[in-house]
Amino acid sequence: MTHLRWDNSLPLKHLLILLFIAVAYGSAFPVTKLALNNSVPPILMASLRMGIVLIILIPYWRFKIPEKKYLTSLIAFSISMGVMVYVFMTLSLYHSSIISPVIVGSQLAIPFGVLLSAVMLGENISFKKWILIFCAFFGIVIIFFDPELANNFLGLFYAGLMALFFGLAQVYSRQLKSLNVSLTNAFTGLFGFIILMILSYFIEGHTISNIKSININTWVFIFYQAVVVSLGAHLLMFYLYKFYTVGQIFPSYSLFPIFGIGLSFLIFGEIPTFLFLIGSAIVLTSVFLLHKTS
Question: What residue segments make up the domains of the chain, in order of their start?
């Protein structure tokens, strides 16, 4: 196994891939917000994103059904990731006028994943991990008390649910390592597209007219989310897993909130407050160290 160190031992090719992944994941939040600002209903947009993922992966999936022993975990993973994560991501951004806290809140997926692994898989949580988990949530509490976020509490709540289900999805994904990546992502797209489309029909209504009213620029944003983020960045991450462990590549991957916050400043002019910077530093450092001890 190749070892990843903080020097130039990492091949340039892999460094560029890691940079692309970080930028792609970071850009997902402001790009989603741009699409929502064009009056696309949030649940419908999440459904269309998953639908595009499904259509692209059909030639690679070819409607193959995995062995029965994988089905329960695969369905649970597909619903957690394809439905819950993406719907709460779009809802969190829809109900937030400031999106940087949502980006930082998404990092709680790592502490949630550790806690859920302990509950569902019986894994032990060391004292050091408990301290880091507490610090991560404490950082979010600091951000929560930022006066600038007075009208964004609902968005932060949805961001917390997004992180919770992302952590849950990661627990289920550990039972699916033997499956082809295109199969798991196709199932995620299938469940996400169908369930979210049904929810959009009953909750948001006017589904057909809403789709017809989507302009070209918004379709570009939705395709970007599906192709560049959900497929490109995700599949490239799995490519790197062939050469490195998760713990080895995570230090570079964890840069994505920085890119996301930077893009939020460039696109929306968001200027971080002092409380946000303090809280974010605590969250990101705690999550970084927590994942490094895994």
Answer: 12-292
